[in-house]
Amino acid sequence: MSPSKVRTFLPIIVMVSLLLAAAWVLYQELHVIDYHDVRQALRELTLVHVGLALLFTVANFLVSSCYDLLAFSHIGKPVWRVRIAATAILSYAVSNSVGFTLLSGTAVRHRFYSRWGVTTSDLSRIVVFNSATYWLGLFALAGWSLAFHPGMFLQGGIANHTAVGLGILCCLIVVGYLALSVFRRAPIRVRGFTVRLPTLPTACGQLLVSVVDWFLAATVLYVLLPDTGPSYGILLSAFLAAQLLGVLSHVPGGVGVFDSVMVVLLGPYLPLEQILAVLILYRIIYYIIPLVIALVALVGDELKNRQAQLSRLSHSVSYYSVHLAPKVLSLFTFIAGVVLLFSGATPAEHERLHWLASTLPTSLFETTHFLNSLIGVGLLILAQAVSRRIEVAYYLVMAGLAAGVATSLLRAADWEEAILLVFLILAFIPARHFFDRQAALFETRFSPQWIAAILVALGASIWLGMFAFRHVEYANALWWQVGLNQDAPRFLRASLGSAVMLLAFSAWHLMRPLQKLIQVPGEAEISQTLAIIHDQKETLPYLAWLKDKALLFNVARTGFIMYGVNGRTWVAMGDPVGPEEVAPGLIREFIEQANDYGGMPIFYQVRPNTLHLYADLGMSFIKLGEEARVALPGFSLEGKANKNFRTLINKLERENVTFRIIPAEQVATAMAQLKVVSDDWLTTKSVSEKHFSLGCFDADYIARFPVAVLKKEGSIVAFANVWSGAAGEELSVDLMRYSSAAPTGAMDSLFIHLMMWGRDNHYQWFNLGMSPLSGLEKGPTAPLWAKVAGFVYKHGETLYNFEGLRAYKSKFRPVWQARYLAYPGKLGLPMVMADIAALSAGGYRKIFR
């Protein structure tokens, strides 16, 4: 298995393995517990317990905001403290529940901090600083617990001397961090990223804030325990171990993993039904309530932004900001599905059932109970489409939630469940504008993460039902029993219906053919690009007329992206084509479409002035090389510097070599001669036709442009098709070929004639194209990519004459402008570059031909 596949599937395997292990532990520990005992334990929790837990939760989130306050002080960025604290609280409310803290928490921070002048680089340093703070307190408390109280929670699982050794190691890590803050003042550079170590007072502040944060988080759980429970020290030790495994599992909120560890470690001190009841309430108070508040705040902020018509930066449509609300709504949709499934797997309140039975028929309870579980499965499936912002998914989820409210009330007067679904409906209503994608509902395969999550949810509901009705002896007759108090048969039928529905959907989804990833444009689409391209100052968009790249248009058909796919790499050629205002939406749509298919979105040869658009969407970039552009006003053959040009032109004139530009409408008549020159060139050079980023000899493509030719004794010996930008801004060529009969210096002569022609026709620039790998950063502090690329540029002449190409273009004294590759980050860049090369060559085997 390739390293990339290992990196892709290893976290999933770890997550699923830990979930399965957690489920097994819970089953082993709870097999003697009765479901009714758990419900009774929940009822015994007083309002005092709940009130204290809420109070400490608020205190915990306030202390968590100090992470960001310290980080801003460290990087020296002046932002109002109230803004920092509010943003930090929202980010932790989201990341605690959604999981993947670096992604989800950073998304919230980017949304707000970018408005107040915080750059992407600053945000990266804040995230690194906060991560260090988070782990510093954990190591400190874990070290204290293991080193000085090893028997509190190990219960013989680890030898005491091993526990003490681990504790001492954790303490040494904390001491080492503090020592570094004293003795090392030089920044640390890792893969081109520079991290400045904090001062000793700041490091001590990190330690204090993190320790208090962990203490308060554990206290929320502690105040929910009965008075007969374990001491605070024992609870803290168990809490740290459970949180650590939950974080390492990457399961959102550590669901299942955290709970199973707590059940095992607190088992000797409390009845298991009380532990389970406390954990359920803890999750509602510490995770669900803050997440709901954060979602309301984020949706309200977006509505405020739209009404106030904020500036482009704060109103930009960002993968890490605007996409956050749909991601959270997707999580809530999934939770709603789980709630409906779980309610269908547990006994109803019989008092409420008897009250309903006085006016409604029993058959209605059976039907609504069955439908309730089916709606739950539907919401689990639709959650994926919600995260992709599909418009039809919005309406289906709203209908599903409304139906869930009705079935919850009709099946057992479950008003608590109905209120929860109503709150979710209210959260969806103002978020309608997020769902603007017209893509098909299920046009993509579900990722392994989604498949695992849905299967775990359904499996957990079945396990819960078996746990709740373990006292009922199984018999085949149960499937057919219908009655007011027949909860177990209703659970069996609902579970079977849910499993059949999920199986049917899976079979349909797996067997139906996926839409083709690449559909080359037809003449109708090419004609739609004419007006767009003719309004562009740059000439690169003419590559769309090769018809070898797919075209992604915006809804208004005023802009497009041309792209190709090789393996999992989706490569957009250049920046979006069209007015500046359509670029952010097109970039976002391309990224989403690539993500739909599990692809990696890449933007190749983007300009420096558009980099902020990709940074806004959370992308990284590297420099590919530099593009050579010759200023045409004032270009001439006069002067000492142009002596070689004059000599060449005069020499070819004496050899009866003439220059001419054939208008596009007349190119067809010369196509046969052009084909002879092209075939001669391919044979002489022993190369194959290129595609994607370079033109190839295609009669239809060539005939769309004027063609500059050199003739010798009436025969064409060299040619190049001519790209001309709008408003006389830029002139360029794409396909350049010359025959073996062409005189020495033919292409130089062709360029010189074109530059003079462009000057006389009032063009501003002649584009000589990009020189790959040139102009990259050098020296010991250069990023790793720049060092590798620099070595290839200097010594890779057997692969491609990088250095010679730049030297050739330099003799025309051009202005060099950088070109970049925008990518999601943390990718295997060599593989990405190989995929791009394969797109241009027509396959990996043709890269060096």
Explain what this protein looks like in three dimensions.
Helix 1 (3-30) runs parallel beside helix 10 (257-266), helix 15 packs antiparallel against helix 18 and helix 16 (391-412) packs antiparallel against helix 17. Helices cover 58% and strands 10% of the residues. The longest helix is centred in the middle third of the chain and has 37 residues, at 272-308. The chain has 29 helices and 13 strands. The strands form two sheets. An eleven-stranded mixed sheet has the order 3-4-5-6-13-7-12-11-10-9-8, sandwiched between helices. A two-stranded antiparallel ribbon has the order 1-2. It is elongated. The chain has a domain at 323-515. By secondary structure, the protein is α+β, with helices and mostly antiparallel strands. It is a multi-pass membrane protein. It comes from Vreelandella neptunia. The chain crosses the membrane at residues 9-27, 47-70, 82-103, 123-146, 158-180, 200-225, 232-255, 275-299, 320-343, 363-383, 392-412, 418-435, 447-471, 491-511. Belongs to the LPG synthase family.
